[in-house]
Every structure is written in C-alpha cells, then in structure tokens.
Design a protein that fits this description.
This protein is an alpha+beta fold and 469 residues long. It is built from 15 helices and 15 strands. The chain folds into 3 domains: 288 residues, no CATH class; 105 residues, no CATH class; 57 residues, Orthogonal Bundle (Arc Repressor Mutant, subunit A), CATH 1.10.10. Helix 5 packs across helix 6, helix 5 runs parallel beside helix 7 and helix 9 packs antiparallel against helix 10. It is elongated and about 105 Å long. It binds zinc ion. The site of zinc ion has 8 residues, from loops.
C-alpha cells in the first residue's frame, strides 16, 4: 500500500440482479448459468423490429426496496432512457437504462460507524454475452453471441467517492450483499454474476480536497479480486505519480491469472451514449401509498440488527458486526444463544469456529456444544472436533461425546480437580512426600479414592505423581 502521503479515494458502481422470474422488459425466463445458448430469448430481447417492451413490476419493486433500505429518496416521477451504443452483445443498438430521473437518489449505507453516501439506485437491462472462439490450427476465428443474459434486469447502485481503502471497498460490497439478501431483493451471488463491482479509484495528497484522475475497474466478480485489484491499482497509480508521470483516465480490467489490472479503453475512446427518453415506455409515477407499504414491509436491516445484538445480548460491537454481517449467522446466533443461555460463548463459537467453516450447525446442536464446553464436560479442542463431526454426520454433540468416549477424558479433568483438592487439603503429607518420605503417597491416594471411589487407582496415582512434581 502507498505511504502515508497518499489518500485513496474510491467510489463504487455495483450491478445487482434483482430476484425476478422474468427479464426486465419481456416474459423470458431468467434461466441459469449453463443453459444452452439463446434458449431464454424472444423477439423483444433479441431486438427484433416492431416489438414493444413491458416493464417488469417485480424488478421495480426490488429496486424500490433496495433504495428504501439504502435510505434513498424516491422521487415522484421516474422514467427510462435509451443509452445508445453499437455492439453485437446488444442487438437493439441501445440499452434501456435510466439517465436523469432515476428510481431513487441521495441515500447512504452504514458501514461500521461510518456512512457511505449513495448517489442513486436505478434499473436497467443486462447485455448478451460474446464468446470468442476459434481454431488456431486453421486460423479460423469465430465469435458467438449468446443472448440469454440480454434483457435480464439489473439494479445499478452508485456510491459517492466515500471509500478510502481496498478494505473499505470490500466491506462495502459485502455489506451491500448482506442488505440485499436480508430484504430479499437479490440472491447477490458474486460467483453467479448476480453482483458485479466496478470501483473507480484515484489518489490525492492528504489534506487535498481535489479529486485526482480516476481509473475505473470493470466487472469484478469476487470480493477477493475486488480487494486485490484495488490494491494493485492504488500501487500502480502511486508509482506513476511518484515517477513523475500522470494517471490517465481510463477503464481497466482485472486479470485474475496475472493478478494485475490492464488498460481496456482510454478516455479518447469514451463513447457518446446520446441518451434520450425511451419512447416505447411510459414514465412512471411512483404511488406514495405503495412506497410506504414497501417501506413498512422491510425486515430488520443489518445495521439495526447489529445495534440490537449489542443491546439485547451484551455483545461487543466487533462481535455484533461480524455476526450481523450474515443473516444466517445472526439467526443461528439468536436461536443458539437463547437455547444455551450463554450469548458470549455462543458468539465466540460462531465467530471462531462456525463462520470460517462456511456451513452451519443447527441452533440446538450449537447450544448443546456451547454448554458441554462451558460446563467443562469436554475441552475446547474436543469441542472443535465434536462440532466438525456433528456437522458431517448430523449427530448431536452429546451423542458424539458419548460415542467418542470424550466423557471419560472429562472424568479425568474432574479427577484433576479432586486431586488438586487432596493436595491442597493435606499439606503435611505433601510436605513429607516432597521431603522424600514415599509412604506419604499412600495417605494421599487413600484420600483421593475416598473422594472419587470409582476412579482407577493407576490413573489416580499417575495424576498425583504429576501434580506433586
Ligand atoms: Zn425475451
């Protein structure tokens, strides 16, 4: 990362596929990755002449819910516009998007104790996909067009340049994903292309309010790639500026194979989209009672849940942040904490052991495990093993402890407590033993066996010898 004289400024555009059954302006199914090419298409999304688009209400609703959850203002009027560009992945020759009257403006997302301002959330349609293939041997090159994605709804969430590091940019994208899943607006799975991040990045000297020339990174589809691409790009810009050069305004891609960004398109080739109002769609007047009903129907949002985990369960803020970051984790925590009655230990197990496994035990099993460890029936190490086994075979932790014979080892830890008590309660015998009177051992053993009659003598004497050292 750059030295302290450079401040990093990042804004983010995130494209999210709302949860809908059909495409943005036609009745085609959304389909899945791996569907045969051009199997989810019709005249509308193939851009045939004479067809008319129809607005997908579910997509509008998902966009409005997202905007409300991001504390945006919802204007009374909104409309769609044509964004013109000629490229084979878009057979109409334009994309239907929103230009000067987006679905929502001026929101914010809470990120820890900070607020990242949201400039707008609008709706548009996705483009098709080009596959460049060929036969090297015969020098025959071909490009294929798959329009399954053409016309799939997309929400574009645009932030102000409020992010200051690769860490923050990744946290922001993750917080957005959590929010979208919590309100059910999108599954937001990056690996399925349902959430794509496009950070724009610039650097400036600390203390300066000017914005430097920014580069935009396109279509990053994992949190890890997002973090690495931003770190790489920041370092690249610092090197350029510190060696006397200037950063050019351009669009750059991220090469996962080479772990570096590369230039795709410089500003000289920036396109003039010649936006104009989409003549085939009516402007929308957003009904206030409908908006208010959507607002009231929103579930508890991650930021509110985080605050509640702190107040209701007395969790430290850092624990609450980690647990509230995933709705499933937070649900598991609340159910297991109630069942075990030990919220702090439940939180520790979730953060330390459950979250990294990426798979969840049932609340009842987790609560049982927390209790087994907290009461000293098994050790923490054994608890980890029991958790792993329980999640594999579905048996309850108590059952696994019995099957593995861990309870016997726990007898030994109970025995240890008894032996320590015997040593503390017989100072004279201990002193004699340590002075070399080996027969003093017999008195100590007798006391141990009185207090724990079911103990095997060889285990008890081994423990006594160990603790008398
Ligand atoms: Zn269609």
């Amino acid at each position: 990362m750059p030295d302290s004289q450079w401040e990093v400024v990042i804004g983010m555009e995130v494209h999210v596929q709302p949860r809908t059954r059909t495409k943005m302006f036609c009745g085609c199914a959304i389909g899945q990755l791996g569907d045969p090419p051009n199997s989810n298409v019709c005249e509308v999304c193939m851009g045939m002449p004479g067809v008319l688009p129809v607005i997908n209400k579910a997509a509008v609703e998902a966009c409005l819910k997202t905007a409300l959850a991001l504390n945006c203002e919802i204007p009374r009027h909104t409309k769609f516009d044509r964004k013109n560009y000629m490229y084979p992945d878009l057979p109409k020759g334009y994309q239907i998007s929103q230009y000067d009257l987006p679905m929502s403006v001026n929101g914010h997302l809470e990120l820890g104790d900070r607020q990242v301002r949201i400039r707008r959330v609008h709706l548009e349609e996705d483009t098709g996909k080009l596959i460049h293939a060929g036969d090297k041997l015969h020098k025959a090159w071909e490009s294929y067009v798959d329009l399954n994605r053409a016309g799939v709804p997309l929400m574009e969430i645009v932030s102000e340049p409020d992010l200051r590091s690769a860490d923050e940019a990744r946290d922001y994208a993750q917080a957005l994903r959590t929010l979208l899943r919590t309100i059910g607006a999108s599954e937001a799975e990056m690996e399925k292309g349902q959430l794509r991040a496009e950070p724009n990045i610039s650097i400036r000297r600390y203390g300066s309010d000017d914005l430097g020339v920014k580069t935009e990174l396109k279509n990053i589809n994992s949190f890890r790639a997002l973090h690495r691409a931003i770190e790489f790009e920041v370092n690249r810009q610092v090197e350029v500026v510190e060696s006397g050069g200037t950063v050019g305004q351009e669009t750059r891609g991220w090469s996962e194979a080479e772990q570096r960004t590369f230039s795709q398109r410089s500003k000289e080739f920036a396109e003039d989209y010649r936006y104009f109002p989409e003549p085939d769609l009516p402007p929308l007047e957003l009904d206030r009672p409908w908006i208010e009903a959507l607002r009231r129907a929103l579930p508890e949002l991650p930021a509110a849940r985080r605050a509640r985990l702190v107040s209701q369960y007395a969790l430290p803020a850092s624990d609450a942040t980690q647990i509230a970051a995933e709705r499933e984790l937070a649900d598991l925590f609340e159910a297991a904490a109630k069942a075990s009655g030990d919220s702090k230990q439940t939180a520790n197990w979730i953060i330390g052991e459950v979250a990294p496994r990426g798979k969840l035990p049932t609340p009842a099993h987790l609560a049982e495990l927390v209790t087994l460890v907290a009461t000293g029936k098994i050790t923490r190490d054994q608890g980890r093993e029991v958790l792993g086994t329980s999640m594999e075979n579905g048996h309850s932790p108590a059952q696994i402890v019995a099957e593995r014979g861990f309870a016997q080892i726990s007898d030994e830890s109970e025995l240890r407590v008894i032996v320590e008590g015997v040593i503390a309660g017989n100072p004279r015998a201990v002193e004699d033993y340590r002075a070399g009177k080996k027969q003093a051992m017999q008195a100590l053993m007798a006391d141990v066996l009185t207090r724990a009659p079911q103990t095997k003598p060889n285990i008890a004497s081994a423990l006594l010898l160990e603790l008398l050292k």
